[in-house]
């Protein structure tokens, strides 16, 4: 096992387009790291540079304590599990798993020991003599992982391994991969464009947009402290609501009325400027079902509800609004960036299942303002981010040495 350190990695393909642009990610020994982002953001390119299937234009790729930029794939001792697992149809499950060991000329007793060990971990014992063609998608997946396990690789690399499975199996395999990874404790880098996989599997998640790392943090940190509009919109389902807002004093003017903001948020945003407020659906509630003890933590407004979807334990209410100018432009751009087709000029609020709000009602809605984020519409930055709980945000990082240089300069000025 080994840690994987990527330092300022750049990949330019033939046409000069930077598919990966100055990405630094440190994968700890034994960590489950997710690379996530919309199609074309450079996930596969980055993974292929770790394995050695793609040249690195600049930067350092370090595995364990070796710089591997110039090493061939087989010298890097990593195991890659692809989207289509490329099993040999004419070989049994046993021989499929044994394949890398046979290739390396391992003696029979060693092959047997390792294959049986892997098969036990993967619960494939009763399938060892079968052919891949007779296995389910999930079982085939496990055979592919078995092949990776017997190699005693330093790390596992997965490129969207579940994308061609049906939804139910995908859910099962997700739990299975998580369990196996924990049991084996092997360093893992896993590429997906599915935010649910990212949230459930990863110890940490690296969110990429057009080849640039946006934020590197635990799922909880990403969810509660997204660095910018892109991360905020990408993580979470149904997605965070984005609304135009102007702050005056402690009052925030939303399309539905004014709400009171906590002082710590007010202090961090410019007064009177058009901003984007980000509020997750679950931070709204039917004011009628909010307990008195919680009520004071939030603020209420009254608005007409367009549609209600009641799901038993909860309900979603949809409330249309207008976004103008800079806010509308930024939200349209965001939708393009996210590959999304969601209609963002409606507010989605999640209500308790006991709520009696119905379509067409003028409803009193409560909002937990403590969880409201405020974004700069020009840059998309989250102005109210808690950087201590946001993991790594490259855009906010001090360029190397600047802080130290400033300190030296200040020290010199003092003398
Ligand atoms: N061989 C290549 N030559 C030129 N450009 C390439 C090549 N492979 C990828 N690219 C470009 O690099 C960028 C990143 O591609 P990459 O395959 O890494 O994306 P991805 O995040 O894995 O996307 P997806 O989710 O669709 O698999 C894209 O803009 C793509 O067009
Ligand atoms: Mg890809």
Could you characterize the architecture of this molecule?
GO terms for molecular function: ABC-type transporter activity; ATP binding; ATP hydrolysis activity. This is sn-glycerol-3-phosphate ABC transporter ATP-binding protein UgpC. Residues 401-415 have a biased composition (Low complexity). Keywords: ATP-binding, Cell membrane, Membrane, Nucleotide-binding, Translocase, Transport. The protein is α+β, with helices and mostly antiparallel strands and 415 residues long. The protein folds into 2 domains: 4-223, 3-Layer(aba) Sandwich (Rossmann fold); 239-384, OB fold (Dihydrolipoamide Acetyltransferase, E2P), CATH 2.40.50. 29% of the residues lie in helices and 28% in strands. The protein has helices at residues 43-51, 93-103, 108-121, 137-150, 167-184, 195-201, 219-224, 229-234, 263-266, 292-295, 325-337, 402-414, and strands at residues 4-12, 18-27, 32-36, 58-63, 66-67, 78-81, 155-159, 187-192, 204-209, 212-217, 241-248, 251-254, 257-260, 274-279, 284-286, 299-304, 307-310, 314-320, 346-352, 362-367, 373-375. The strands form 5 sheets. A 6-stranded mixed beta sheet has the order 6-7-8-3-9-10, with helices on both faces. Strands 13-12-11-14-21 form a 5-stranded antiparallel beta sheet. A 4-stranded antiparallel beta sheet has the order 2-1-4-5, with helices on one face. It is elongated. The mean pLDDT is 90. Residues 43-44 line the site of magnesium ion (MG). Residues 43-44 line the site of magnesium ion.
């Amino acid at each position: 096992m080994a840690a994987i350190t990527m330092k300022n990695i750049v990949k330019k393909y033939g046409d000069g387009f930077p598919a990966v642009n100055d990405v630094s990610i440190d994968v700890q020994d034994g960590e489950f790291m997710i690379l996530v982002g919309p199609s074309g953001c450079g996930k596969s390119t980055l993974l292929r540079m770790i394995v050695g299937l793609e040249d690195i234009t600049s930067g350092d790729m370090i595995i364990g304590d070796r710089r591997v930029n110039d090493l061939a794939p087989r010298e890097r001792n990593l195991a890659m599990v692809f989207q289509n697992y490329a099993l040999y149809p004419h070989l049994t499950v046993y021989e499929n798993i044994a394949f890398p060991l046979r290739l390396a000329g391992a003696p029979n007793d060693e092959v047997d020991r390792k294959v049986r060990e892997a098969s036990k971990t993967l619960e494939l014992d009763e399938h060892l003599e079968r052919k891949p063609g007779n296995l389910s998608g999930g079982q085939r997946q496990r055979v592919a992982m078995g092949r990776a396990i017997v190699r005693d690789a330093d790390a596992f690399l997965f490129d969207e391994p579940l994308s061609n499975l049906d939804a139910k199996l995908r859910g099962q395999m997700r739990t299975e991969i998580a369990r196996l990874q924990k049991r084996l404790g092997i360093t893992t880098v896993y590429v997906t464009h599915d935010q649910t996989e990212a949230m459930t599997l990863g110890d940490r998640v690296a969110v990429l947009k057009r080849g640039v790392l946006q934020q590197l943090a635990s799922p909880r940190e990403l969810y509660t402290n997204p660095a910018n509009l892109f991360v905020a919109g990408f993580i979470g389902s149904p997605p965070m609501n984005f609304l135009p807002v102007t702050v005056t004093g402690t009052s925030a003017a939303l399309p539905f009325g004014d709400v009171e903001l906590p002082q710590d948020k007010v202090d961090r945003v410019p007064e009177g400027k058009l901003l984007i407020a980000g509020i997750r659906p679950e931070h709204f509630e039917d004011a009628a079902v909010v307990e008195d003890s919680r009520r004071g933590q939030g603020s209420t407004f009254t608005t007409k509800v367009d549609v209600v979807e009641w799901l038993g334990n909860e309900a979603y209410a949809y409330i249309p609004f207008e976004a103008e100018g800079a806010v509308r432009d930024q939200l349209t751009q965001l939708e393009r960036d996210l590959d999304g087709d969601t209609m963002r000029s409606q507010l989605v609020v999640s209500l308790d299942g006991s709520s009696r709000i119905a379509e067409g009602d003028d409803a009193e809605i409560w909002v937990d303002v403590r969880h409201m984020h405020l974004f700069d519409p020009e840059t998309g930055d989250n102005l109210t981010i808690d950087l201590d709980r946001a993991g790594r945000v490259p855009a906010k990082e001090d360029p190397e040495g600047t802080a130290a240089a400033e300190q030296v300069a200040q020290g010199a000025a003092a003398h």
